[in-house]
Amino acid sequence: MKIKPLLYIVAIAALAFTYFSNQSVMSADKSPAKMPDVPDGHEQISLGAGCFWCIEAIYNRLNGVKSAVSGYTGGSVKNPTYQDICTGASGHAEVVHIVYDPKVVTLDTILAWFWKAHDPTTLNRQGNDVGTQYRSAIYYYNDAQRKLAEASKTAAQKDFKSPIVTEITKSVKFYPGEAYHQDFYKKNKSKNSYCRFIIAPKMKKLGFEDKEKVAK
Fold first, then answer.
1. Three-state SS letters, the chain
2. How many domains, the chain?
């Protein structure tokens, strides 16, 4: 059997699929999304855990989360674009800004999923995504959140052999990402290679794939 030629064909097909998938993404609406509302009684927190497409997909299915918006924070560049972020020079991280009802879902629960959703022991990297923009980070909005985040980080360490490198930092200005990044997995899971081969397996592993909302 001529196995090598077949493997070459499969590899070329995969590369072509990835290329055209990404081209369709980059040609989409690049206007910034709207800043999420924070209703009375709700709280907000921003989490960085690698590519925001994956993290947004998870938190959009967590009961008690009003909104999960992909965007950028932690850097010095004003009104950054995705292209600015990709250079790694903006100082910003890809994050998901979460608005949640603490009467329905606690910050402890939100952070418990955070530790499960990525590897917090790899510095500036998640899988093949490498750069400071992919750093593991928790951006808190008040001192109570800071204390909870630090306690959660300490508790989570027992689940990892290597030290957790997640930074816990007071929030600075959050910039919503471009419109095409929002609900990315929901809109593209059947036609984008990253959704199919990276996000979908993680959603299935965490028990989110076949559910509209997960209680806890």
1. CCHHHHHHHHHHHHHHHHHHHHHHHHCCCCCECCCCCCCCCCEEEEEEECCHHHHHHHHCCECCEEEEEEEEECCCCCCCCHHHHHCCCCCCEEEEEEEECCCCCCHHHHHHHHHHHCCCCCCCEECCEECHHHCEEEEECCHHHHHHHHHHHHHHHHHCCCCCCCEEEECCCCEECEHHHCCHHHHHCCCCHHHHHHHHHHHHHHCCCCCCCECC
2. 1
